[in-house]
Amino acid sequence: MDALAAAKGREVDDDMYFSASDFVAKVCERLPAEDVREESRPQWLAEGLFFWDDGKEVLLAGIPMLCPEWTDEVKAAASGRYERWFNDGTYMVAAKPAGEFGKIAPGTYWVEGSMSECYWERTREDGEIIDNRFATSARKITVTIAPSNGGAD
């Protein structure tokens, strides 16, 4: 794998990893880890530090070799079509947030489970509320955020 990466001119951060295979092995170790649970695994790969520089190409080539069980996740991350998870908070609407903290793309979002005392709102850029709801008890909440919205909470 290292010879292939070198032949294609692919490099990884040599301050953190000894080689391309070391980089892929470390990602393989962390993919099943508990600290990935805040995001979908493709989101963790694409929006973390792993796709910087040549990381995406190295992982697309290396994951199927070193940990093939995660091949679908790295392909989804590379395609940009993957499930995104968000924590509580306020997010500004951005056309292509690409993992920027505090930004969310327009689209339809939902949460499922047993929820109580749940509030959401969509605002214009000036902060005026466009739509909001307070759910005292819900099993599923769906919100569609338009490109013209300024923020979502």
Structural account:
The chain is an alpha+beta fold. It has two domains: 2-79, no CATH class; 91-152, no CATH class. 29% of the residues lie in helices and 27% in strands. It has a five-stranded mixed sheet, with no helix packed on it. Helix 4 (55-66) packs antiparallel against helix 5. The termini are far apart.
Radius of gyration: 19 Å
Tell me the overall shape: elongated
Mean pLDDT: 79
What structural class should be given to the helix and strand makeup? Answer: alpha+beta
Q: Distance between termini? A: 44 Å
- Could you name the ranges where pLDDT drops below 50 across 5 or more consecutive residues? none
Please give the largest β-sheet.
5 strands, mixed
- Count up the domains: 2
Please work out how many helical segments DSSP would assign: 5
The largest sheet has its strands arranged as: 2-1-5-3-4
Strand content bin: 25-35%
The ordered string of helix (H) and strand (E) elements is HHHHHEEEEE
Could you provide a short overview of the structure?
The chain is 29% helix and 27% strand. It is α+β, with helices and mostly antiparallel strands and 153 residues long.
Keywords for this entry:
single chain, 153 residues, alpha+beta, 2 domains, 5-stranded mixed sheet, 29% helix, elongated
Helix and strand topology:
Elements (H helix, E strand, L loop, with lengths): L1 H6 L12 H11 L10 H7 L7 H12 L4 H9 L11 E3 L9 E2 L2 E17 L5 E17 L5 E2 L1
Parallel strand pairs: 1-2
Antiparallel strand pairs: 1-5, 3-4, 3-5
Helix pairs in contact: 2-4, 3-5, 4-5
